Amino acid sequence: MNPSERFDIILVGAGIVGSSVAMALAEHGLKVLAIDIDLSGRLSSSEKNAGGVRATWWQPVNIALCRASIEYYVRVRAEVSFRQKGYLWLYDEKTWQAALDHIDLQRNLGHPIETLRPAELTRRVPELDKLDGIAGATFSPDDGLINPNLLKEHYRHRAIRSGAQFLDRVYVMAIHSAASGAHLECWQSDRPLSDEGLGRIMTQDGPGEAETGRTFELTANAIAITSGAWAPAVFRSLGLANYTEPIRRQICLVDNRATNLSRYGMIVDTSGVYFHNEGPHILAGYSPPDTPPGYHFNYDGESFFQNEIWPRLFARMNVMERLRHVTGWAGLYEVSPDRSAIVGRAAPGVYEAHSFSGRGVMQSWAIGQALAELIANGKYGALDATALSRERFVCGEQVWEELHI
Ligand SMILES: Cc1cc2nc3c(=O)[nH]c(=O)nc-3n(C[C@H](O)[C@H](O)[C@H](O)COP(=O)(O)OP(=O)(O)OC[C@H]3O[C@@H](n4cnc5c(N)ncnc54)[C@H](O)[C@@H]3O)c2cc1C
Q1: Is 138 a domain residue?
Q2: Residues 159 and 205 in one domain
Q3: Domain interval for residue 129
Q4: Count: domains in the chain
């Protein structure tokens, strides 16, 4: 990398969102550099998620962005392993009416969705044989499961083909944005980062004394903050308001010889546990509502499975009686105050796409397309993310979503 080289735009963070934005910008003909401290994504949310894709949201902008992304994932389904097997969502008395209230909106925006009575559930999914507490369910057949890693690689491959560059092992420590452009103070590790070294950098706001490397500066006409859960540090450096916080989420893989759920897509239980078939296993997640914010990556292991996952799965299905915990992990949700992403122009020459609040994979294609139009042409095109601008927190026009899973 020649430090005197000037880019049209530098992206800080190259997870699934940064990679999609890089692809779309490069395909607009811009000179793009995407920087990441770890392109392999060992701590990035894009490597830790459940691969769920759905458009059953409450806000038109979220439905439209997911819907457009789904249409793209269908076109490249073999390459990104998109399995359009639907989302089956079980509701209790407290939540059923709210689900029903949003169905017309979802259908009107082109997203098919059925409502099911409890008795119909067992016909559709015979494994669901304990129906206590279910008031109703929805099934949205266009939704499904994707391989996020393949999707990210797909974006990167197309981005590189159109001239985008990706820079690995580089941490952006500070950014100075001026009328003349953006100057980024960067640090590059002089050797491959160990898990411990990466963990220190990503939980302590950058490299400390234990890490060795070199510093250098890069310049661009504009920057885009696609740093996921680490966007707060970038905003501190820029002196811009931060609205996002990182929250730990855990997932585990379990072995279940008694059944094979590969016919189904994602199933979300009234208890909040969500699960789907994952190769020879079942992937299951649950997010305790009182999880405190912070950069925590510790996985609770067997106790997470025993206390949070197994009781909920067995309470719903007898075939879940003999489950074995295989492995699991923790990653970060990047949660905004209204649980919708923050996307658009943050300041002159500063763009942003982060805080997806559990929606980053499923919206990634549409966000890349929308933001690239805004950056390249000064206004949104067919995909309009205006409602997700940070200004909504100042003028009180929040885009409220239930966090769900
Ligand atoms: C357990 C769990 C389950 C989830 N399930 C789903 C799901 O089913 N469907 C769905 O759509 N979403 C889901 N999500 C959310 C989804 O994973 C995220 O919204 C999405 O991955 C965000 O992508 P991103 O590119 O914005 O962030 P990330 O993937 O976190 O990428 C940000 C990148 O920026 C880099 N970075 C940050 N700061 C700097 C810096 N200063 N210098 C250099 N590099 C930097 C990081 O290294 C990282 O690679 C889930 C998340 C979790 C944790």
Answers
A1: yes
A2: yes
A3: 60-146+246-335
A4: 2
Instruction: Report the residue among 33, 44, 73 best suited for mutation to probe ligand 1: largest number of ligand atoms under 8 A from its CB.
Output: 44
359 ligand 1 Cβ < 6 A:
yes
CA dihedral for 376, 381, 145, 328, sign (positive or negative): positive
Task: Give residue-wise pLDDT tens across range 149-202.
Answer: 999 999 999 999 999 999 999 999 999 988 889 999 999 999 999 999 999 999
Q: Any idea what the Cα angle at residue 148 is, between residues 143 and 152, rounded to 5°?
A: 125
Amino acid identity, position 118:
P
Taking alpha carbons only, the member of 19, 61, 57, 58 closest to residue 385 is 61
Q: Which CATH number goes with the domain that contains 381? A: 3.50.50.60
pLDDT tens per residue, range 68-98? 999 999 999 999 999 999 999 999 999 999 9
Q: Above pLDDT 90, what percent of the chain? A: 92
Q: What is the whole-number distance in angstroms between the Cα of residue 359 and the centre of ligand 1?
A: 10
- Does residue 405 lie within any of the structural domains? no
The tens digit of pLDDT for each residue in 133-150 reads: 999 999 999 999 999 999
Is 133 in the same domain as 273? yes
| 15 CA from centroid of ligand 1 (Å) | 6
The pair phi, psi for residue 187, each rounded to 5°, is -130, 130
Same domain, 171 and 218: yes
In angstroms, the CA 93 to CA 350 distance is 45
Q: How far is the CA of 50 from the centre of ligand 1 (A)?
A: 12
Share of the chain above pLDDT 70, in %: 99
- Per the listing, tokens 């490249």 go with 76
Global pTM value:
0.97
